[in-house]
């Protein structure tokens, strides 16, 4: 009897061990195809661009310097604020210049009085000479004195105008409408004409220049008419990317190029102009410019994450066919354009290129293609088939296998208990 009980127990234990494995194998056979993210591509004409580094320059710049010497007695503007052309920025002690103007005006009055006397003397001698009472020499001397007095009056008037100008220049005014910088001086400081350092600087940044550098070889290609737009085409629309990576909302135009190639770097400076209504672009800021360079006709733009290379460096893409089977394609790439590769051969209209989920996407495998979501347009997100992530089917199979094993073990224990009772 014990031999029969032992045989029954061994059979139950064997079933308990084998059942989970069979359950897992069965579940593995029903596992769904892996999910991949795809992008549908189409042939079109693509405007190629070059990303060029650049610096922002003010559209207009005026360094404020004194035109007369003296002591600063007042600063009238707010640093960093906006000023209009003609606004008074600084005042210089005007006492000396007021005295100089008064002296010059007195000189005008004196010269005018001397001119009146000289004219009377000349008129008197002309009359006497006509009656042969005065000599011709005396008349000539009187006429010369009158002419000299007229010149002296003109000189005195010019000196008075100069004194007025210098007095007015004690009020240092803005010559440009724009944003004013920090003051480099303060009341009580002595300033002079021709000093090296400006008192402050005014910049007009409602529009700005962006100076970018381009290689001479690329410039020659443009000049020969192989580019999309010529350098003298002021309607060229140029995009700009800020230092934080955001795209500037205003587009710019190509204003011109420096007719000189730097001998050391081999580059030429291109100047672009942008409207800057919100004052986001500040002089000196580093930016990147997307400059249109050419048009590639009848090509396909493929996201860079959808292109790999084999050991020989040949670019390849994995394409999902209409039957949801993965197919490998060799590509001919012209160049990159932003975040895309420009492909001339190897892909067709409507092809679905895999851009994420490559671990389960071997050539010939059946997959579950899903279009890339809008949130993933800038950066592809990994799918559940990435290494280190268990699939839902695997988890379900493991759970069901463990449950089946537990049930078989319980059944074996129940049978053993019944047999022992029967024996007793």
UniProtKB/TrEMBL annotation:
The keyword DNA-binding does not apply. Residues 389-412 have a biased composition (Low complexity). GO terms for molecular function: transmembrane transporter activity. Residues 361-424 are annotated as: Disordered. It is found in: Cell envelope. Residues 1-21 form the signal peptide. One of its GO terms (cellular component) is plasma membrane. SUPFAM superfamilies: HlyD-like secretion proteins. Keywords: Coiled coil, Signal. Residues 101-170 form the Multidrug resistance protein MdtA-like alpha-helical hairpin domain. Residues 60-202 form the Multidrug resistance protein MdtA-like barrel-sandwich hybrid domain. Residues 101-175 form a coiled coil. Its main location: other. Residues 208-292 form the Multidrug resistance protein MdtA-like beta-barrel domain. GO terms for biological process: response to antibiotic. Residues 298-359 form the Multidrug resistance protein MdtA-like C-terminal permuted SH3 domain. Belongs to the membrane fusion protein (MFP) (TC 8.A.1) family. This is Putative efflux pump periplasmic linker TtgA. It comes from Roseivivax jejudonensis. The lineage of its organism: Bacteria, Pseudomonadati, Pseudomonadota, Alphaproteobacteria, Rhodobacterales.
